[in-house]
Amino acid sequence: MQRFKIWDLPTRLFHWLLAVGFAFMWFSAETGGNWLAWHIRIGSLLFGLLVFRICWGIWGSDTARFRQFVRPGRIAAYLRGQVGESEQPGHNPLGAMMVLALLAALAVQLVSGLFAADENTFIHNGYLNGLVSEAAGSAMRSLHMAFFNVLLTLVAVHIAAVAVYRLVKKQNLVTPMISGYKFLHAAPKLRFAGAGAFLAAAAVAVAAVYALYQV
């Protein structure tokens, strides 16, 4: 087996920044008080990360592009062991569904938080709360609080799947997401996006966060 580059730096940074951000958002929401101000601020940054990941999934590197790794039709073949890692070295067909589920759940959680009303102190409303009625803001708050359990469940399933791959299939999925490299039997045919693509995705993300602060 040989060592090949699989994950680019932007994808890896997104993954770990999102993990840290998720942990902080959980902590700050449970702690409350003055931490809620930071809960909202970091939430806006996570919104920027999500926008970046969507852009990167459209014009980023091959292992990050949705059209390259989201292939539901291959799930059955993968479960039968007919899809090799060199053929789809990044997210496998089954893992791709988890990626989409996590991104979709994250989008619901972030957007509901942006519109949510603070019904306790009335000073930590979401950045976009002023655009909706009081009833809508209250509904978004309820959704934001209830849907977190769905997101938490998906995260738990994701972590459990990584553990199963490590213990049962003897595949380490964590180290490649840190180093960017994975050991494979054959060289994968991958194209990695350049600085221009990264700057374009980052610019869209920054503009999206900036727009939140202007509302």
From TrEMBL:
Pfam families (UniProt xref): Ni_hydr_CYTB
Transmembrane segment boundaries: 12-29, 35-59, 94-117, 146-168, 189-213
Keyword Transmembrane helix: yes
Swiss-Prot/TrEMBL keywords: Cell membrane, Membrane, Transmembrane, Transmembrane helix
InterPro entries: Cyt_b561_bac/Ni-Hgenase (IPR011577), Di-haem_cyt_TM (IPR016174), Hydrogenase_cytochrome (IPR051542)
Record domain Cytochrome b561 bacterial/Ni-hydrogenase: where: 7-180
Localization annotation: Cell membrane
Keyword set includes Lipid biosynthesis: no
One record GO biological process: respiratory electron transport chain
Stated name of the protein: Cytochrome b/b6 domain-containing protein
One GO MF term: heme binding
Signal peptide residue numbers: none
GO cellular component: plasma membrane
Topological category with respect to the lipid bilayer: Multi-pass membrane protein
Organism encoding this protein: Neisseria leonii
